[in-house]
Amino acid sequence: MAATGLGLGLCLCLLAAGCVLAVEAAGRPDGMNVLFIVVDDLRPVLGCYGDKLVKSPNIDQLASRSIVFNNAYAQQAVCAPSRVSFLTGRRPDTTRLYDFYSYWRVHAGNYSTMPQYFKENGYMTMSVGKVFHPGVSSNYHDDYPYSWSIPPFHPSTEKYENDKTCRGKDGRLYANLVCPVNVTEMPGGTLPDIQTTEEAIRLLKVMKTQKQKFFLAVGYHKPHIPLRYPQEFLKLYPLENITLAPDPWVPKKLPSVAYNPWMDIRQRDDVQALNVSFPYGPLPDDFQRQIRQSYYAAVSYLDMQVGRLLNALDDVGLSSSTMVVFTADHGWSLGEHGEWAKYSNFDVATRVPLMFYVPGMTSAAASQQGRIFPYLDPFSHNLGLVPQGQSKKVVELVSLFSTLAELAGLQVPPACPKTSFHVALCTEGASIVHYFNSSEEKVETEDGCEDNNRCHTEEPVAFSQYPRPSDTPQWNSDRPELKDIRIMGYSMRTIDYSNKISLVMLWSFPLWNQSCFNEE
């Protein structure tokens, strides 16, 4: 389904590699393009967030021209529910997606998405890599054609992610957790995130000559497991420099319902060989260091891809007319509390990086010939760049929809009513644009304000949640299917107070079609 005013020639060109359209030079319409970068499983281990070990010069450079939010939180620490939440602007309790096995338009409500809203307002919307979680939760087509002007692109090598491609010391191939590789030996001689960058750059080259504004979403897979990345990145992180987590033991008084037994980690060949006890482990210290080493290496590999993409934005002359948003779907535990992976309400699982580059707002607009994002080699650059602006305000990913709409000059969707299953367009996250230039002091509530997207509450709060099938760890504690969920844990965060509350209750969904319990 084409966007409003999308010509057949442009549509075919976007789908064809190597295509260049000849069009008459014309001024770009008012309003910004959007480059939306979302990363899988990335906690804020970045130089711009104060990490002293990581090498992330390109993301740090983006931060130096952006407003950076130090306390941003996902609404659920697992891929599909988080992505559907921030792409629809609704919380998991409204999307009714807590697992991977339902499509919100069928099982909750026909909610509009952020890219759909931009598409309906004249933007060419494009998806490259992992933006929506693939599969049932996005109707097997990444919500195309509702959200996207052209079919989403997925790397051809994505299908090998969980294959035996990791060469062990014995020369055999394994499906390992820790998996530095020789890229030339990989299927197709490449990796998915490299292909994602190449396709995103191709689309930028096509769009540079077009009159139509665009919303380009680019989803990177690393540092999601397996930690498979070019082996040369290990050189950046000698194992002797890698420490254990500062609090690597399971707290003695930790409620068992709060713990996730990291089942996806346990299923990898190298972890299985360790014969780790269930559910609390622990993993051997030396292997913990290897995981942390490879996570950092995967982040630097990601940084290289982001650097190439932003450098291409410069190359096509669009850096001064394109806002850039960088975030992640959730964090990832690296041994804190004896935990690994996500699947919990701990800060390390729910806190994410979030930054906005808005030309002329967060950074002075460059001249047409000026370069804003020159590529920085992670192997030779560690500049220690600091963010253009930082906010300690607590914010949520569910606010992305309304925030980007406001930044683009579109009408901000209205706040959702208390019950919104039959409301197609509304958001449960208020725009955070008012934090971009405000002081860190509390903002007074506006008298008589009826629209939550326009009102500023005195103390921002972030809510996250995670389901469990029982109050003790079991094989499906990390990813319970909807029919097995018996407990929902919630966490609430403010700038000066963090209180995690687990609410034990038997689930019934009076507002939802009960037949969904039997569907996949």
UniProtKB/TrEMBL annotation:
Main subcellular location: other
Signal peptide: 1-22
Example of a GO cellular component annotation carried by this entry: lysosomal lumen
Presence of keyword Signal: yes
Swiss-Prot/TrEMBL GO biological process terms: carbohydrate derivative catabolic process
Residue ranges occupied by any Sulfatase N-terminal domain in the UniProt entry: 33-409
SUPFAM superfamilies tied to this protein: Alkaline phosphatase-like (SSF53649)
EC number: 3.1.6.13
Record InterPro entries: Alkaline_phosphatase_core_sf, IDS, Sulfatase_CS, Sulfatase_N
Record GO terms (molecular function): iduronate-2-sulfatase activity; metal ion binding
Class of this enzyme: hydrolase
Catalyzed chemical reaction(s): Hydrolysis of the 2-sulfate groups of the L-iduronate 2-sulfate units of dermatan sulfate, heparan sulfate and heparin
UniProt subcellular location: Lysosome
UniProt KW keywords: Calcium, Disulfide bond, Glycoprotein, Hydrolase, Lysosome, Metal-binding, Signal, Zymogen
Cofactor: Ca(2+)
Family membership noted in the UniProt record: Belongs to the sulfatase family.
Protein's job: Lysosomal enzyme involved in the degradation pathway of dermatan sulfate and heparan sulfate.
Subunit (UniProt): Monomer. The 58-kDa mature form is composed of two chains resulting from proteolitic processing, the 42-kDa chain and the 14-kDa chain that remain stably associated and form the 58-kDa intermediate form which is enzymatically active.
Protein name: Iduronate 2-sulfatase
Organism listed in the record: Anas platyrhynchos platyrhynchos (Northern mallard)
